[in-house]
Amino acid sequence: MPKPSPWPHPDHSELEDFYDDPWDNTNIVGVTAPPWLRLYGTDRRVSKIYCHVEVAHSLLRALEAAYEVEPDVVSRYFGCHVDRNTRGGSSPSLHAYGAAIDLAAHTNQNHAAWPTKSDMPLSVMEAFAREGWTAAGAFWGRDAMHFQATQPT
């Protein structure tokens, strides 16, 4: 059973109250990535995951739990912290806050419907949910590569 989400709602004021200014990277830390994490589409090992300090331990726990059930999916890292706005929008992305991660992007693209056009396993979504993270595929029905440390919308 998932524990209650410790994360803020995904509205701008709550995000800034919890994570601070997304363009000020002082809260972004580089945590040692698990040894099995590979840069998506390559065999290159990811040495650090850059994320917000508040989500770092939870993110690593979620990745480890998901890797136990779906190693081939979870080992395909596509990114975490990126200074950018939401696609087509003017507000900061959860990636700008360092509070989102993308995995297995090639088969779980943004506009691909989950589960009919995406293949993100429910067990991976459940591993993140146990840490209170929102799985986009489960809650939005698309963008199944995306997981964010916010309460579901």
Which fold name corresponds to the CATH topology?
Answer: Muramoyl-pentapeptide Carboxypeptidase, domain 2
Give the N-to-C terminal Cα separation. 19 Å
CATH class: Alpha Beta
Major sheet: 5 strands, mixed
Shape: globular
**What's the helix count?**
5
Tell me the structural class. Answer: alpha+beta
Mean pLDDT, nearest integer?
Answer: 94
Can you tell me the number of structural domains? 1
The share of residues in helices is 25-40%
The helix-strand sequence is HEEEHHEEHEHE
**Rg result:** 14 Å
Show unreliable segments: none
Q: Could you give the count of β-strands?
A: 7
In the sheet with the most strands, the strands line up as 2-4-5-7-6
> Which strand-content bin applies to the residues?
15-25%
CATH architectural type: 2-Layer Sandwich
Entry summary:
The protein is of the alpha+beta class and 153 residues long. The protein has helices spanning 12-19, 56-69, 71-74, 122-129, 136-140, and strands at 28-32, 38-39, 48-52, 76-79, 100-103, 134-135, 146-148.
Features:
153 residues; alpha+beta; 5-stranded mixed beta sheet; two-stranded antiparallel ribbon; single chain
Report on the architecture of this protein.
This protein is an alpha+beta fold and 153 residues long. It is built from 5 helices and 7 strands; from the N terminus they run H-E-E-E-H-H-E-E-H-E-H-E. Strands 2-4-5-7-6 form a 5-stranded mixed β-sheet. It has a two-stranded antiparallel ribbon with strand order 1-3. Helix 2 (56-69) packs antiparallel against helix 4 (122-129). The model has no long low-confidence stretch (mean pLDDT 94).
